[in-house]
Amino acid sequence: MDNKSYQDHYFRKAKSQGYRSRSAFKLIELNQKFKFLKNGIKLLDVGSFPGGWCQVVVKIVKNGKILGIDKKKITKIKGVNLIKGDFLEENSKKNIIKFFNNKINVILSDMAPNTTGNKSLDAIKTNELCLSILEFSNEMLDKNGVVISKLFMGDDFEEIKVYAKKTFKKIDFFKPNSSRDNSRETYIHCNRLNT
Ligand SMILES: C[S@@+](CC[C@H](N)C(=O)[O-])C[C@H]1O[C@@H](n2cnc3c(N)ncnc32)[C@H](O)[C@@H]1O
Predict the structure, then answer these.
(1) Which of 15, 17, 44, 49 has most ligand 1 atoms within 8 Å of its beta carbon, as the pocket-test mutant?
(2) What is the C-alpha separation between 64 and 175, in angstroms, rounded?
């Protein structure tokens, strides 16, 4: 599928199913593969605007405690608590910790920086965000918890792999079909902390 057909296909699919973003299908595929969305979990979704992933989460997870955070304001989603803030700021992290008041079972991040058009620079910035999620997870994730984060195959990909291997018992990489073939985007799935 060429880029335009890809965009049209997932745009129509998202619209017909009531999702705010095409990204929703990436989370659906990730969950089909790794099965981390379960009833009663505490779940953090970072970089959640416009809210497609949160919509998928509330459809599947019953009686969960769900928090979404993004720099941009997200329109309300029933069953999801939303914070507008920059995840990299200490104050946002404090707000997240205060909200859960306990360890988190699932941490998701689809964070992406504003693209510059320079593929290497975009990859570096995305991977910095990924590393910050893994570091935060090291502190705040339940020892049997799961982290999923977007990353880009780039020069600093190895650094993430080394950190993830050191921090988690099991790591995998997965590129959903709904992620464009020509994009270097992929997702890391990390399972259970090395305590
Ligand atoms: C690809 S979009 C997420 C789409 C979302 N998963 C969905 O399904 O609707 C990436 C988001 O990451 C957010 N983002 C980037 N850097 C961030 C940061 N430091 N803190 C919070 N959000 C951030 C952007 O504002 C953008 O809305």
Answers:
(1) 49
(2) 27
